[in-house]
Amino acid sequence: MKNVFNRDKGLEVAKQPMFFGEDLQVQQYADMKYPIFDKLNQQQLGYFWRPEEVSLQKDRNDYLNLNDQQKFIFTSNLKYQTMLDSVQGRGPCLAFLPFVSNPELEGCIITWDFMETIHSRSYTYIIKNLYSNPNEVFDTIIHDEKIEARSASVTKAYDELIEMGYKWHLNKDKVDLYELKKKMYLAMATVNILEGLRFYVSFACSFAFGELKMLEGSAKIISFIARDESQHLAMSQTIINNWHDRNDDKDMKKIQKECEKDLYKMYDDALTVGNISIFQRKYDWVIRKTVTPICRIHGKSKNESDRPNTTIRPKNKSTSVGRPLAEFKGYTKRTTRNRD
Ligand SMILES: [Fe+2]
Ligand SMILES: [Fe+2]
Fold first, then answer.
1. Among residues 34, 123, 267, 331, which one is catalytic?
2. Which residues, other chains included, contact 292 with Cβ-Cβ below 8 Å and sequence gap of 6+?
3. Which domain does 228 fall in, by range?
């Protein structure tokens, strides 16, 4: 059974892997095995923001002036974003946290999940400000076939990990730990794709309205969300890197090799959905920045011919993996937040 506080006096914390090690003991952030997770945690906390800080007064008029097609695109995108953050607003704590055996990663995941709930609140704030009947938007999310199809691909890996993980916690002898680790790996890769690609596709759509000087308050809120997502992407990327490069768990290295084909299929699926073509034309450098590193991790480098042609480049070429589109587009600045 799982213990909320491990009383083992001889516990060697520094020898524990990120997941599936001994139960956690003291929450201390002085002597850390992976200080990068504490740094990411502190960064997330430093970026704390609330949607109410951004005025949406002009957005309501802008929305009323959109034509029917624009209203459909904006609302559908908002519904999709609400669904994705509903998943992320509980997924990390529900699926990853019960298996964590490293205190700095534990803290980082808790903050990650908390920040995702701010994103869900943001969508509610936008929807309540723009629509006379917000429930019409919320109640139809679950009935949208396309959103349902996408949610299935996003949640499958999470649900499989949770189901097998509960059984493992109840009786460790009855569950194959190697298979459970495989579920963990696929769930982490799914989240990496979600935070690194799927979200950015929807952000590009929100920013497109902002570029037309419409719904700029909403675009500003989305830019704060995009900044958070870049932190979350860095987290899942670091976890995957630790499995691959730092020998955190020898099974995981083997699993990474075994799952290589699944992984490429998952990325291909994410790259071929919905409005990715719009995204690809305008923001293909982001795709290259996010897909290429994960390909490298798996021992492959995608051919130049596989990559989309670059049409827009960031002004700052030192852009890191997953850096929010909004930053180089001027919606926000990294150090001084430009709030209304
Ligand atoms: Fe989010
Ligand atoms: Fe996220």
1. 123
2. 301, 302, 307
3. 40-47+54-329
Q: How many CB atoms lie within 10 A of CB 282?
A: 16
Q: How far apart are CA 230 and CA 236, in angstroms?
A: 10
Question: Could you count the other beta carbons within 10 Å of the beta carbon of residue 285?
Answer: 19
Q: What percent of the chain has pLDDT over 70?
A: 79
Residue 307 in tokens: 């990559």
Distance CA 195, CA 154 (A): 11
Judge contact between 195 and 227, C-beta under 8 A.
Answer: no
Looking at the structure of the chain, the number of domains it has is 1
Q: Would you call 323 helix, strand, or coil by DSSP?
A: coil
Look up 123 and say whether it is catalytic. yes
Q: What is the pTM of this model?
A: 0.84
pLDDT digits (tens, 9 = 90+) for 146-165: 888 888 878 999 999 999 99
Q: Is residue 130 part of a domain?
A: yes
Dist. CA 49 → ligand 1 center (Å) = 13
299 CA → ligand 1 middle, Å? 29
Cβ atoms 207, 326 nearer than 8 A: yes
Q: What is the CATH number of the domain that holds 149?
A: 1.10.620.20
CA 303, 191, 88: angle at the middle one, nearest 5? 150
